[in-house]
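G., the chain you wanted modeled:
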Amino acid sequence: MPQPQELKPTSQGKVRDLFDLGDTMLLVASDRLSAFDVVLPDPIPYKGEVLTKVSLFWFDLLGDVVANHLISADVEDLPEEFSAYAEGLAGRFMLVKKAKVFPVECIVRGYLAGSGWNEYRRSGTVCGQKLPEGLVESSRLPEPIFTPSTKAAIGDHDENISFEAMVDIIGEEYANTLRDASIEVYKRAAEHALERGIIIADTKFEFGLVDGVVTLVDEVLTPDSSRFWPVESYEPGQGQPSFDKQFVRDWLQSSGWDKTPPAPELPEDIITVTAEKYIEAYEMITHEPFIPEGDQYGTP
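Predicted structure as tokens:
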């Protein structure tokens, strides 16, 4: 049986392999994990399937808010040239409409964490936006805020930019549309997740144009693109336990690594716990058991 690793993608991101099929694309989510914009040497079992299936759940739930690029995730709809790899691709691919992707990341923050908390402690702002005094780490913000960033190449770092800078890059009309869509999608998703026991502290989206229509693309509201916290242990004033890759980031921070490639190998227990956290997030959000379909894919 041919293995997906034998496929040669048209292009490759930190986590996904992209195959250009003309008017459509095949996106394949690997088990690779990136942290601090560096791809780590150890894959996380089932991670690619979790990312894909969580995205599929959100695309279905939020389809009335904004258009998305999904055509199919059914192996029966795989293009003929990929049919020999169906067993390995099952559960981790999306056949999508090709979009002209906007060169910005659309980040929405509903809670004060990470780089936002660090900036707030220094200046009372997050990405230059003034916030009320007296907030503490992990505080819920009065309203979600939109904080765009640049899109960096592999190995480089995204940089926060102002909304005005975003307007300069893509124009005022598109900037307003992407901001409003990002906040609305975040609010709807955060409300759903809260009912399932998960706080979505922040997340990032990507958008593109498909036949002139602003369209949500790539993965959406996954443990890779979002900061997920358990509701039951939420306590402002400190960092929160996490369902996402913050667990790995914390280990890397404590390892003494200087955040330049190559990254250190992960201990087996860190790999195991991280896989469990991804699966737990999927099951809480969807209320469905996680049933693996394909094989491990995308070792560095």
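Helices lie at 47-61, 86-89, 114-123, 163-170, 172-195, 246-255, 268-286.

Shout if anything looks off.
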